[in-house]
Specification:
This protein has 327 residues and is an all-alpha fold. The protein contains 19 helices and four strands.
Length: 327
């Protein structure tokens, strides 16, 4: 009987079985290695750490750019034109199969200002690619710089980010750190622990996603007006992905870890100071609606901070598709 109990305990640590734990742990570790772990790689070759380093996602970007670099401007033009055509078709014809699909409707059934922006973008990119009409648009220092230098990098990096960032976002890593950092956010920043998830979403995913997440939490009664304003302004920073795009543009990828470290340090210092200044300090500290589920920072009896954060992470991973389904 003792042997059976010991065996069961080895398979189930704090109510979490091995399968559940691995579903959280493996994708999260792979995601961290791709987006955070530094490797010695500079100018298309592996070197020593003393010579510089970057993150693996940047190496993947270089390999893809090396294979299809000449096709990238055409791919950019094609994708922009297809997006515009599909958007116009949706706005004019209003097909049911698009309007009833949440993803396609959000992507293509845009507001009038966004439609105008897409039309202008298509106009500029076509003029630049075919070099007709306005030299002030397609010159090497204006349109040419955007289409042939910046956009190919954006195209690859955001494709890779869209494909691989769910490893960080969808398998419980944010929930794990969200609960784990609850004892840091309230004392330092006067914010609930769940705000660390907004911060991580912004840094690891996209700043606009972080703002939308914060807005949803405000509407749901989880944040006060003041807390939401502080989070959206102080924590929804530019993402690591876009930082990589910027530093790649100036060809300083070997300094990426140094750059992101300085940006993070400055961001933390600003987040400590700015909310105590006008106008953030004068915003009402009240909720938009009442919510009985608001308090999620209390650690259940019999659990430590770590085990509770692990349970939250595993619960999130359980709701996600399997690893193979994800790919």
């Amino acid at each position: 009987m003792d042997i059976i109990k010991a065996s069961a305990a080895s398979r189930d640590v704090s109510g979490i079985n091995i399968r559940q734990f691995l579903k959280f742990f493996i994708p999260s570790i792979i995601g961290l290695m791709l987006f955070v772990f530094p490797i010695p790689y500079v100018d298309g070759k592996f070197v020593t750490y003393a010579e510089g380093f970057t993150i693996p996602i940047s190496v993947l970007k270089d390999y893809i750019q090396g294979y299809i670099g000449d096709l990238l401007p055409l791919l950019v033009v094609t994708s922009i034109m297809i997006t515009l055509c599909c958007t116009l078709y949706t706005k004019i014809m209003k097909p049911a199969f698009i309007l009833k699909n949440a993803f396609l409707n959000n992507l293509l059934n845009v507001t009038t200002p966004w439609l105008v922006i897409r039309m202008l973008g298509a106009f500029f990119v076509v003029v630049t690619y075919f070099k007709f009409g306005f030299e002030s648009i397609y010159s090497d220092n204006i349109g040419g710089l955007i289409l042939y230098e910046l956009m190919p990098i954006l195209f690859i990096v955001f494709f890779l980010a869209g494909l691989l960032l769910p490893l960080l976002l969808d398998f419980g890593l944010l929930e794990f750190f969200g609960v784990l950092l609850s004892k840091v956010m309230r004392p330092l920043f006067g914010l609930p622990g769940r705000s660390s998830v907004d911060c991580l979403t912004s840094w690891l995913g996209d700043g606009t996603i972080g703002v939308l997440l914060t807005d949803k939490q405000l509407e749901g009664g989880f944040y006060t007006k003041k807390e939401a304003a502080i989070i959206a302004t102080s924590f929804s920073a530019v993402s690591i992905t876009f930082c990589l795009v910027v530093i790649s543009q100036v060809k300083l990828e070997s300094y990426f870890i140094n750059m992101i470290g300085v940006v993070a340090l400055c961001g933390i210092v600003c987040a400590l100071i700015v909310p105590r200044l006008l106008p953030l300090s004068r915003i009402e500290d009240t909720y938009t609606i009442e919510n009985s589920d608001r308090d999620h920072e209390t650690i259940p009896e019999g659990k430590t901070l770590f085990t509770h954060s692990l349970h939250k992470a595993v619960q999130k991973a359980d709701k996600s598709p399997s690893f193979l389904t994800f790919f």
